[in-house]
TrEMBL record:
Endoplasmic reticulum is among the record's keywords: yes
Listed Polar residues bias regions: 156-178, 186-210
Pfam families assigned: Use1
Major place of residence: endoplasmic reticulum
Protein name stated in the entry: Synaptobrevin
Bilayer topology annotation: Single-pass type IV membrane protein
Organism: Hymenoscyphus albidus
Ranges annotated as biased composition (Pro residues): 139-150
Length: 314
C-alpha cells in the first residue's frame, strides 16, 4: 500500500500508464478483492486508510496527466482507444474511492474511541460486543451469566488482550455498532444482547450487509441521477426538435406562397400567349383561307411586276 514512484520520466506516457495500471491493480486487490484480514486492518487502522487515500490521489494525478496527454494524440483511432481506456480507469478509480469512503464510514466510530499509538485495535465484532456487555455489566447474575464467561472470554483474550484496559471505549463502540445493527437487522441485535454462545459469529454478515447496502444504495443513486439526466436531455432534445419544426413550418409556408405566385404568373402568361395566337391566326378557318388567298395574290402580283411588266411596250 506504499506509494509507487514512477520508473521513468514523468512525461513518458507509457511509463505513466504502466504505473497507473499497477497502482489500480494493487488498490483493487486491497479494497475490492481483499481478504478478511486486510479488510479488518483497513477498518481499524486510520494510518492504513490514509496510505490508501494517498495512493488514490497519486493515481488520480497520473490519470489526469494521461488524459491531458491523450488530447495531443493526432491519430484519431489511437486517440479514441486511449480515451476509452482512460474512461475505464476513471470508473475503476471512482469505485475504489467509494469503497474507501465506505470503509471510513464503517470505521469512524471505532477510530474516535481508540487511543493514539494503537493502529491495529480491532473493530468490535459481535463476539467482542457480547464480551464487553458481559464484563461491563454492573450486576451479573451468577445463575445466568457465569457459565458462558469461560467459553466467550477465551477468544476475546487471544484476539485483543488490551481490550480489558478500555471497557468504557468498548462499551461506547458496542453501543454505536448495536445501533447500526438495529437499523439493518433488529433480530440479530436482539440475539446478540441475549449473550448466547451461538451468536459469536452472527453479526459478521451484518457488516457485510451494511457494506452491500451502502454499495447498492450508491449504485441506485447513480442510476437515478443518470435516468434523470437522460430524461432532461430527452426533454431538451424534444423541445429543440419542436422549435426546428416550427422554423421549418414557416419556411414551408413561404415556399408554398412562392409556388402560388409562380402558378398565377404562369396562368397569366398562358392567357397572353393564347391572345397572341388568336391575333396571329385570325378568326377561325375562314380567316386562315383569307390569309392564304392574300399570300397567293401577293405572289402573283410580284411575278407580274417582275417578269411581265418589263416586256410591255407602250
Amino acid at each position: 500500500m506504499a506509494r509507487i514512484s514512477t520508473a521513468g520520466g514523468a512525461g513518458a506516457p507509457d511509463h505513466t500508464s504502466l504505473n497507473l495500471t499497477r497502482i489500480l491493480a494493487r488498490l483493487n486487490s486491497i479494497l475490492i478483492t481483499s481478504d478478511q484480514q486486510t479488510e479488518h486492518r483497513l477498518k481499524v487502522s486510520e494510518i492504513e486508510r490514509e496510505k490508501v487515500g494517498t495512493n488514490l490521489k497519486y493515481a488520480s494525478s497520473l490519470l489526469t496527466q494521461l488524459e491531458k496527454d491523450a488530447q495531443n494524440i493526432k491519430n484519431l483511432t489511437k486517440k479514441q482507444e486511449a480515451q476509452t481506456e482512460l474512461v475505464r480507469k476513471r470508473e475503476v478509480l471512482l469505485r475504489l474511492e467509494e469503497r474507501l469512503e465506505e470503509l471510513n464510514d464503517l470505521a469512524h466510530p471505532e477510530d474516535d474511541d481508540t487511543s493514539e499509538g494503537e493502529d491495529l485495535i480491532g473493530e468490535d465484532t459481535p463476539s467482542e460486543e457480547t464480551d464487553s456487555h458481559t464484563y461491563t455489566s454492573p450486576t451479573p447474575s451468577p445463575s445466568t451469566n457465569h457459565p458462558p464467561v469461560p467459553s466467550i472470554s477465551a477468544p476475546f483474550e487471544t484476539s485483543n488482550p488490551p481490550q480489558f484496559e478500555e471497557p468504557t471505549s468498548t462499551l461506547r463502540s458496542r453501543t454505536n455498532a448495536s445501533q447500526r445493527e438495529e437499523l439493518f437487522n433488529p433480530s440479530l441485535s436482539t440475539v446478540t444482547t441475549g449473550i448466547s454462545p451461538r451468536t459469536s459469529h452472527a453479526p459478521v454478515p451484518t457488516t457485510t450487509k451494511e457494506s452491500l447496502l451502502t454499495h447498492n444504495r450508491t449504485e441506485q443513486e447513480a442510476l437515478t441521477s443518470l435516468l434523470l439526466s437522460m430524461a432532461s436531455a430527452l426533454k431538451e432534445s424534444s423541445k429543440a426538435f419542436a422549435a426546428s419544426l416550427d422554423d421549418e413550418k414557416e419556411i414551408l409556408d413561404h415556399a408554398g406562397k412562392g409556388m402560388d405566385k409562380n402558378e398565377e404568373a404562369l396562368n397569366a402568361a398562358s392567357k397572353k400567349m393564347g391572345l397572341l395566337r388568336g391575333m396571329t391566326e385570325g378568326k377561325g378557318w375562314w380567316g386562315r383561307i383569307m390569309l392564304y388567298a392574300w399570300i397567293a395574290g401577293l405572289m402573283v402580283a410580284a411575278i407580274l411586276i417582275v417578269f411581265v411588266m418589263p416586256k410591255l411596250r407602250f
